[in-house]
Predict the structure.
Amino acid sequence: MKLKNLIFIPVIFLVFCKPTVQKEDITFTTVSQNLPSADDVIDFDDFFEISEIIPLETNDSSIVDFIHKVLIDEYLFIKGGGALYKFGRNGEFISKVEKGNDGPNDFINLTDVILLPDQNRIWVYDSNQRNLLQFDYDFNFEISFKLGFPLFGIEKSDDRLLGTPGYMLSIDKPNALINFFGENLATGYSLENSFLPFEIEKSKYLHINRDDYFSLKSQNEFNFVNSFNDTIYSINSYGVPTIEYYIDFQDKKVLKEDLINKGYSTIVDVFSYINSTDKSFNVGNVFQSNSFLTFRFFNSGKPYLSIYNKDNNSLSSGRRIKFNLNDKEFILDFEEEMRIGSLGDGKGYISIPLESGFFTDIKEYDHLNRSDNPLIFIFHEK
């Protein structure tokens, strides 16, 4: 699979503080993504080394319904569907905080979470109440701030909060990326500016609560993805996005006419239609390291994984992943329940459901086959 030539485009660049507008030429990389066969396998060990395998303890209180996000500091925090779980670095369950009953210290929707490792604090964003709540690492509530805007994803840099409503009309402009200026919840955050306009009709039905809008690149810099535009943006420390990668699905691309004026009323209608075709879409699970860009996409309702090598412009894609552990080879189907994400500092994670019992042949891991919780693999470039 080959990459097209770098494309030069004019963009509007916003200078921090008092915005002045100037034009600047930037480059982005177009990745030509065809559809892999069902038998194509990605050899994970060709790209990455697994540094930790963390089995999550299973008991009546610790069963994670679905892993949406993994955050790591001295502890391992797992965002599930309705609870935020705290595990030790070896996977032992410690505690959790769950959805409440509309009390002042409770959250109704566990929409997104942010880790503040330098403060030993964690923020929970509740899109129902439009609140940010701060807890210490023991899940003691400390302070909240009413942001006042419905969002599906958030991230924090030193002096701003990044938020996205997806394609929902959250402010007075149909923009997918919103900047809020501020430093902490005590002094609060105020709306600063917004970027990445979208078709207003999409706000009627493209409401997607996903957990991989943002991916940490380095301190105060992030990748950002939205659905249906096949584009991975880089957000700098001023909160300004520029296109970094465009994933070109070629003849499998979802076109504008597939999304506009089709009579959709909900996102279910959109997915039902696209999954009934041979179109590829929904880039996500982005993890970018020095040499590789890893991302997931869907075709006909099935997830595929791709790893783009930035050094030699090659692309490896497949529906299956191969690992070598203790000199044994394991090949797994890449399932929707698997999550890949960035931990910062060049480290990534992948969650592996254990329903397959794929550790049966390794004595050291045999006990894990009796677990209901997934494994967390921590990895980095070789």
The radius of gyration is 21 Å. Residues 216 and 344 are 6 Å apart (CA to CA). Residues 267-275 form the longest helix (9 residues). Confidence is low (pLDDT under 50) at residues 1-23.
